[in-house]
Design brief:
Order of helices and strands of chain A: HHHHHHHHEEH
Shape of chain B: globular
Number of strands of chain A: 2
Low-confidence stretches of chain A: none
Mean pLDDT of chain A: 80
Order of helices and strands of chain B: HHHHHHHHHHHH
Distance between the termini of chain A: 38 Å
Structural class of chain B: mainly alpha
Helix content of chain A: 55-70%
Largest interface: A-B, 51 and 59 residues
Radius of gyration of chain B: 21 Å
Strand content of chain B: under 5%
Strand order of the largest sheet of chain A: 1-2
Helix content of chain B: over 70%
Largest sheet of chain A: 2 strands, antiparallel
Distance between the termini of chain B: 11 Å
Mean pLDDT of chain B: 75
Radius of gyration of chain A: 19 Å
Low-confidence stretches of chain B: 207-255
Number of helices of chain A: 9
Shape of chain A: globular
Number of domains of chain A: 1
Oligomer: heterodimer
Number of strands of chain B: 0
Strand content of chain A: under 5%
Number of helices of chain B: 12
Structural class of chain A: mainly alpha
Chain lengths: 215, 255
């Protein structure tokens, strides 16, 4: 981090924990939950969001003085949509299987609230370099939660990580399965993602009581 | 007719926007503190989905699909513009939302005031774009079915947000552990409701031998940590499901 001044480093590091886009700002939940049954999909999703958010923040920040405020939402949507089309085409060309798994959720990056939220809250009022750092930081914060959730769900649900059987073979009863361990089918179904995120929020807030909400 | 009924109930309960595919979660979590506002936003979502899904279906059929341009002449039959679908869909949605806002403001100012702040936000609600994208990826066949799909997914979203808002109004009087208050407990409740909605999965397939049985088995596994009474209830439900499905099958056969 020697490259960055203290203020710039804060832009990148803050969203990782205390200002995390998912657990604190409550943005970008939609895609975060649906694609976390497999670690690989989650990592690809995180990288795609990082690309879109980083580039989008720079573009919006460059145009911030020429966008009329009345139609800024549409202008922002067009910028995001163009970037997402690039991501989608690249995925289809180089990782076709994966783009099938992600299906519509790549397209839904367009309406990922993190992106619109950061455009509105940051890129419209800051220089391109700072906006870029802010975008990368928030995408990293988003990615971390995604990877944690996907790690837990894939490990407990299928006993695999990145598709590799780390816990042994459930059918041949090797590894931990020889001891009577069973995969928890509950972790595969979509609602489990919500509960895992709920527990992450619980852990995070009990470690840092300043984040607790009044009800 | 039957396919309409099937799609309608499937979109509301089985493929529920919130509980099955997690669309529109941002506003779902942000605007669900009071039932009255939740009803307003839900109604607006139904309306916008009902308008944008059929519109995007037309765009998809006559502009975007591979070979969709053939109505212009045989030399256009090779064009495949589907890579443009994101940008066109979102443009339609943003425009429609703006248009709806203007029309509602002009003709029913009372409704406008109650929905006011939510209307522009709907443009960036994932449920709306998700509706159009699912419509495209599931290859819905006719305009009528597309309209049906839009309305039904809207109703599903409406039900979900009203239900969670009602629970959150009550939960204010409960003693929730401090770090879970607000967001945390909402997530967990939504998860539990999602598990409940999973049981609708048997509504259309439960009577079939193959897929249905597997789903039932999966549910049994999921239900193990719960109490025995719940399991009894589930068994009852599955019995009901079987009767419904066999009826459906009977009706289908003559077609």
């Amino acid at each position: 981090m020697a490259l960055l001044s203290k203020k710039d480093a804060k832009l990148v590091l803050d969203p990782l924990a205390d200002n995390n886009p998912i657990t604190i700002q409550v943005l970008g939940i939609c895609s975060a939950l649906a694609i976390t049954a497999q670690l690989q999909a989650a990592v690809v999703m995180a990288i795609s969001v990082m690309f879109v958010l980083g580039m989008g923040n720079v573009v919006i920040s460059l145009m911030r003085n020429i966008i009329p405020s009345k139609i800024r939402i549409i202008a922002q949507l067009v910028v995001v949509a163009a970037l997402v089309i690039i991501v989608d085409q690249v995925l289809k060309a180089f990782a076709y299987e994966l783009s099938k798994t992600l299906s519509v959720f790549v397209g839904l990056i367009i309406t990922n609230c993190i992106i619109m939220g950061r455009f509105e809250a940051f890129a419209l009022g800051n220089t391109p370099w700072r906006s870029f750092l802010d975008g990368i930081g928030n995408a990293l914060g988003y990615g971390i939660i995604l990877v944690i959730v996907a790690f837990l769900r894939e490990l407990l649900g299928s006993g695999t990580l990145f598709g590799i059987k780390v816990l042994g073979d459930p059918i041949a009863k090797t590894g931990v399965y020889a001891l009577g361990y069973e995969n928890n089918g509950f972790m595969i179904i979509p609602p489990a993602a919500l509960i895992v995120v709920g527990i992450i929020i619980w852990v995070q807030r009990s470690r840092n009581p300043a984040l607790i909400e009044e009800n | 007719m039957l396919e309409h009924v099937e799609l309608f109930f499937k979109s509301i309960f089985i493929d529920n926007m919130v509980f099955a595919v997690f669309l529109g979660m941002c506003s779902f979590l942000a605007v669900s503190k009071k039932v009255s506002t939740a009803v307003g936003l839900g109604a607006a979502v139904i309306f916008v989905l009902a308008v944008t899904v059929p519109l995007n279906w037309l765009l998809d059929q006559y502009l975007l699909q591979p070979g969709a341009l053939s109505w212009l002449g045989p030399e256009y039959a090779d064009y495949d513009l589907s890579f443009l679908s994101f940008i066109l869909f979102i443009a339609t949605i943003a425009t429609m939302v703006q248009l709806v806002e203007i029309v509602v403001e002009k003709f029913t100012p009372a409704l406008y005031n109650s929905l006011g702040i939510f209307l522009p936000l709907i443009a960036v609600n994932c449920a709306i774009l998700g509706g159009s994208l699912f419509m495209q990826s599931r290859e819905i066949e006719t305009l009528g079915l597309a309209l049906n799909y839009g309305v039904a997914s809207g109703i599903g979203w409406f039900l979900a947000i009203v239900a969670i808002a009602a629970i959150r109004e009550k939960i204010r009087y409960s003693n929730v552990p401090a770090p879970l208050r607000g967001l945390g407990i909402t997530f967990i409740i939504t998860g539990l409701m999602g598990i409940g909605f999973q049981s609708f999965g048997g509504m259309l397939t439960g009577g079939d031998e193959g897929g249905g049985d597997k789903e039932e088995a999966g549910k049994e596994m999921a239900a193990q940590p719960e109490e025995a009474t719940d399991q009894d209830k589930k068994e009852e439900e599955s019995l009901k499901k079987e009767t419904t499905v066999s009826y459906n099958d009977l009706v289908k056969k003559p077609q």
